[in-house]
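$ ./design --mode recover --in tokens.txt
reading tokens...
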């Protein structure tokens, strides 16, 4: 909770993380647990206060410039192309990395990779486990950073993730086992 204000400033600067969602799409729908809370910032803040939302934030001084959202499948049950994903699922992961966001003034500087490293460190500190991500498989094509909310396959490959299978038109499932710290 100590980084909430920095996170909120970054989201506010970018209209709630670019799409106004405040990185809540992957969390349980409000109707499941929080129907009395307004969508966007109020819902995200409640999840953070209750320990149901986590992220590795990247700072430039006192200013948050990016993050990687992480959580268990129970904390982050929302997933695109669910039917296709579940059809190829052999065993569920312990953690998911679902959303990245980088301040527009710091894009293409490696901030997402630093956020990924931070998320993996947090997972290792919590006991480690199987970590899954669903990055865009750009196949070397330029894609607007606005739409790289799940980062890129190449970034995950550099971090030691294994390609598992495609998911949807331009995304894939990647996994890595993170040992306990």
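writing sequence...
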């Amino acid at each position: 909770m100590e980084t909430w204000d920095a996170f909120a400033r970054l989201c506010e600067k970018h209209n709630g993380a670019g799409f106004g969602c405040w990185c809540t799409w992957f969390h349980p729908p409000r109707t499941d647990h929080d129907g009395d809370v307004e969508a966007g910032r109020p819902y995200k803040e409640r999840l953070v206060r209750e320990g149901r939302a986590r992220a590795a934030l990247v700072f430039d001084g006192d200013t948050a410039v990016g993050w990687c959202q992480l959580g268990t499948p129970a904390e982050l049950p929302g997933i695109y192309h669910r039917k296709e994903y579940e059809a190829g699922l052999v065993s569920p992961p312990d953690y998911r990395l679902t959303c990245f966001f980088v301040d527009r003034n710091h894009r293409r500087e490696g901030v997402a990779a630093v956020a990924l490293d931070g998320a993996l460190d947090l997972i290792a500190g919590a006991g480690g486990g199987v970590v899954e991500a669903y990055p865009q498989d750009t196949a070397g094509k330029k894609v607007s950073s606005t739409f790289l909310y799940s980062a890129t396959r190449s970034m995950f490959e550099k971090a030691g993730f294994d390609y598992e299978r495609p998911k949807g038109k331009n995304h894939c499932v990647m996994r890595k086992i993170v040992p306990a710290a």
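exit 0
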